[in-house]
Each structure stands twice: as C-alpha cells, then as structure tokens.
Design a protein that fits this description.
Blueprint: H1 15-24, H2 39-60, H3 65-94, H4 100-124, H5 133-162, H6 165-203
Helix pairs in contact: 2-3, 2-5, 2-6, 3-4, 3-6, 4-5
Length: 204
Amino acid sequence: MPKSNDRSSKGKKGFLERVADSVRGDAPESESESNGTPATELLKSQHDEVRELFRQYDKAGENAHAARKRLIDEASRQLEIHSELEEKIFYPACRELENEDARKMVGESLEEHLIVKRLIKELRGLGGRDETFESKASVLKENVEHHADEEERDLFPAAEKEFDDARLEELGAQMEALKGRLTRAAGPRRRTGARSGARREART
C-alpha cells in the first residue's frame, strides 16, 4: 500500500486544540488534514515511559524498598493499559499485514503478554521487602525490554511500511480513546491498591 512521507510534519497541533476540534465535530477526515499521533509512535512513547521507570528502579538502590515498589506498581499499571491497546486495536490491525513474519510476531507477542501479566499479578501481591520481589521485578524488566525492543525492530517498521499515515493515525486515535477509558476505569482501584501497598511497606 503506498504511503506518504510527511509524518514528521504531523502531530504538532496541541492537545487542547485537538480536543476542541473533536468537541466541535471538526475532526480531520483526510490524511492531509490529520494531526493525530501515529500508532507506532504512540506505542514507542509508552515503551520509553516504562523504560524510564525501570531506569529509576535500578537507580533507586536495593535498600529503597518503598520507592522500588512504587516504581514497579506504576510500570505495571502502564503496562496493563499498553497491553490492552495492543491487543484490542494494534495487533488485530497487524494481522492484516502482508508481511508473514510480522503476522507471526503478533502471536508471539500475545504469548509474551501472558508472561508479563502473570508477573504483574504476582508482584502486586508482594511488598518491596518480600524475598522474591527483586527477582520477579528483574524478570519483568527483562521480559518487557526484550518485547519492546523486538516490536520496535521488527513489527513497527512492518506496519509503517504497509499502512499509510492516515491508517496509522486512525489506529493511534482509537488507542488514545481506549487509553482514556481504561485510565478512568482503573483509577480508583489503582489508588486503593497503592494505599494498601504503602500500608504493607510501613509495617515491614
């Protein structure tokens, strides 16, 4: 599928302007008018945010139990939302790609998501001083970083090669909308979980 090369000039309209356009019903209908964030750029930015949380985790030091627990909890929260965006929107779209290796990678990525979700569930039930917390956090970090690097090296370029800018921005807009709904729905439960974790740390 032919694609334009003007992605670098897009995505410059401010967030509030885009919201105002949406409210007025002025959302762009053509590729030349679209200013949304392409799906692959959105997902990569989320990868980078989680990488930064893991860097902060490493820098915190082994004795900073409460800080490390908070960082892993935040990374887990972001990863759960990120996984939903990929599984509900991006991966189904990638199953349409002509690139067979990219389509196979979708299946592999889903399996890797299951491993990450299991680790997140286990870590959520642990305090920062628990004996297995550090080892499970390290395994989570390694799995997530490997997964993100692989997607950025292989899957994202395949999607960018076959999808034009309008399609990538359409997927990006769908993911932004879903992210907003998931964030609002998860907010109170996550805050309650954070308070519970803080109380566990205070008792240890």
